[in-house]
Amino acid sequence: MIIKITTYAKVGELLQGAFGKNQPFLVSNKSSKLFKTDTIASINPIDEETRLDIKSNKAKELFHSLIEKKGISPIDKIYFNQKRNFKVGKGLSSSSTDILGILLTLNKLYKTQYSNHFLYKIASQIDPTDPCLDFNSLLFNQKSGEILENLNPISYSILYFDSDPNVDIDTIKISKAREYSESQMIEFKNLYSILKISAKNNDYTTFFECVTKSALINETILPKKNFTLLYDFAIENNCGLFVAHSGTFMGLLIEPYRLKSIDFKVRCLVEKHWKTTLYIE
């Protein structure tokens, strides 16, 4: 038996902060169709078997410990091939796509039928987790792996890029160091409340403003290269500005019908000031 699973990266976050002490949250951005982790598992030898990294191996161990408690004996030898087409430390949920790829593969192999919600909670025991198994936006606790609320879907396009390709962020270090003031936590509560209403009403202007304000707050924690240039462009062109709060990616949100009117200008801006690839989805 061969199991093949693809887990897709989350492109930064729409909001990320805290509602109070020990109440971290994020509102996930849409999933990428470009960046992903492919995981293959087989009970028979396979070509190009790869050795699991520390976090993926921990996911396998945790899963096996769970099924043993249910009276299921782990298979003696499972052969894996796991490949990711993007780098770590960029804010594209590399750890989450790897860990969840292993958990999903084993879930299918053992026919345990654990829900995505449950797999998130397992993953969060290894690393702060992004909700990569859900393509739409969620209010999510990355430390506990808990889905707090589903948001009304609002259609938008994203234009994004790596603002500093030569830098890799220590996501664990940033996560532990992330602290917000009382006034910022109050602001995050207001931002989320307004974001939720604006998504329901398809109010793009307000939706984009909320996302941009979250990015501004988080500049005090992990500044992005030439952030002000992208911020000014976003304001002038009525776009939202989002960032990877634990990485180097950032980008713009825009209504799908306006994408063609702006993509060339964004390409020129990114080429001039960051000299890197622009991705559009």
TrEMBL record:
Alphabetical keyword list: Kinase, Transferase
Listed Pfam families: GHMP_kinases_N (PF00288)
Highest taxon, organism lineage: Bacteria
InterPro entries: GHMP_kinase_N_dom, Ribosomal_Su5_D2-typ_SF, Ribsml_uS5_D2-typ_fold_subgr
SUPFAM superfamilies: Ribosomal protein S5 domain 2-like
Domain spans labelled GHMP kinase N-terminal: 59-127
Protein name (record): GHMP kinase
Protein's organism: Flavobacterium columnare (strain ATCC 49512 / CIP 103533 / TG 44/87)
